[in-house]
Amino acid sequence: MELELWQSLSIAGLVLLIVEILTPTMFFLNLALACFVTAGVSVYFSELNILVPVWVVASAVFLFLLKPLQKRNKISAGTGMDKYVGQKAQVIEKIDGDGGVISVFDERWNARSENGEEFDVGSKVYIVRNENLTMFVRKEK
């Protein structure tokens, strides 16, 4: 049993969709959609000198149309720890030269003073940076 050209292009499109799912870059999605368009055109035309330009143009069109969606949904490549910087926290274990503990977003974090100050339990502080799993804090303004 031999596959028709449109079937081969549809299978290629499905494979590219699976690759897109595994590597969410929105690059392979353009190619997959172009394969589906080309599969539709291949029902009427079977010459490669027609199908290759159709696939190239369709890829470019989908790339152009989906680029704004990609920019809108772009996720920061950070670690997620950036959301804590600038947040107000409450000291739940005294912060001194050896460290301490704060609570932010109902989470417990090890903390150190940014400039060597000591903070008593119940004090409000701001997170200025993090290093590994330790938050560095300063006095609330």
In brief:
The protein is of the alpha+beta class. The protein is built from 3 helices and 5 strands.
Pick out its properties:
3 helices, 41% helix, 5-stranded mixed barrel, alpha+beta, 2 domains, OB fold (Dihydrolipoamide Acetyltransferase, E2P), 141 residues
Topology diagram in text:
Elements: H1 5-22, H2 28-42, H3 48-72, E1 88-96, E2 99-104, E3 107-113, E4 124-131, E5 134-139
Parallel strand pairs: 3-5
Antiparallel strand pairs: 1-2, 1-4, 2-3, 4-5
Describe this structure in words.
- It contains 3 helices and 5 strands, in the order H-H-H-E-E-E-E-E.
- It has 141 residues and is α+β, with helices and mostly antiparallel strands.
- The protein has 2 domains: 5-72, no CATH class; 81-139, Beta Barrel (OB fold (Dihydrolipoamide Acetyltransferase, E2P)), CATH 2.40.50.
- A 5-stranded mixed barrel has the order 1-2-3-5-4.
- Strand 1 (88-96) and strand 2 (99-104) form a beta hairpin.
- Helix 1 runs antiparallel to helix 2 and helix 2 runs antiparallel to helix 3.
- It is rod-shaped, with a radius of gyration of 27 Å.
- It starts with a helix and ends with a strand.
- The relative contact order is 0.10.
